[in-house]
Amino acid sequence: MKQAIAASASIHLFNSMDGNKKWKHFSANSSANSHINNLDDGCLMHIFSFLSPIPDRYNTALVCSRWLFLACHPRLWLRVDRSVKDLSVPGVFPNVEAAVCAARPGDTILIGAGGTHLASNIQIKKPLCLIGGGDLPDDTTLACSRGSDSALEFLSTCKLANLTVKAELGCCLLHRSGRLIIDGCILQCESNPLDYLSYAIVTTASGPEAKAEVISSPVKGCCVSVSRTRIEGGAKAVMTSGTLALQRVRVIYSRTSIFFWFDIDHR
After folding, report:
1. Which of 55, 176, 229, 266 is 20 to 30 Å from the Cα of 139, by its Cα?
2. Can you tell me the distance from the alpha carbon of 88 to that of 143, in angstroms, rounded to the nearest whole number?
């Protein structure tokens, strides 16, 4: 009861900066004039663009129907949904390859959780961020078909997060140029009599680039940064054929998994 009275009561502020006693009267409702929802859609969407896609921007969509519309707007990210039937819905695509083709440099692609998404030799030539839409990386799987060189091939600066990437032969990720960031993923080379031909990461990058596109930090040149990532199966976790080498390796053992942190950078 006291809180209700206090909330509805008027607020008086005393101001004596100019030497004269003045009282300013504010009602409790006056604060509504500065509410964030009074901003227009364009301004709110611009604010949302500074939030990390997962979990911050995702959580804003839970506030109200307006924020849901703005937080899921195709200007902020594209979505991959295997069950989509209406291809006219803006920003929603039935597969990863279609989303990558439609994306603009700097876009974020949210890949829907549940089931397996086919990803075979998909070339990414522009800076993008690919994020799994599930709570765990196991919830969103990209599978590379047998006979493909890789699931994803990177020719630009990109980030991968919260995803499982599987390959039976070949490699999960093929890095040719740019900076590749892998955070909180699972790279899995499936068991096969020829699994000595399988690698989680293959990089052929060599020589520093004159200019590198950047998503999250201003680091120039070709390199790969791996953090909080499980790597399973295959002959080796990393194979390099350029001038990059494995560096700064850290491993954490848990009861069920082994998590890796390492960089692949110039010697």
Report:
1. 176
2. 26
Q: What is the pTM of this model?
A: 0.72
Name the residue among 78, 53, 94, 40 with its Cα closest to residue 216.
53
SS (H, E, C) 125-159: CCCEEEEECCCCHHHCEEEECCCCCEEEEECCCEE
Using the CB atoms, write b or e for 162-199: b if 16+ within 10 Å.
Answer: bbbbbbbbbbbbbbbbbbbbbbbbbbbbbeeeeeeebb
Question: Where do the H-state alpha helices sit in the chain?
Answer: 2-8, 41-48, 58-60, 65-71, 96-102
Average pLDDT, the chain: 79
Torsion of CA 60, 117, 181, 149, to 10 degrees: -170
Pairwise CA distance, residues 151 & 142, whole Å: 7
> Which residue from 178, 248, 238, 169 is spatially nearest to 207, judged by alpha carbons?
178
**131-190 pLDDT per residue, tens:** 998 889 999 999 998 878 899 999 999 999 999 999 887 899 999 999 999 999 999 987
The CA radius of gyration of the chain, in Å to the nearest whole number, is 24
| Rounded CA separation 97/101 (Å) | 6
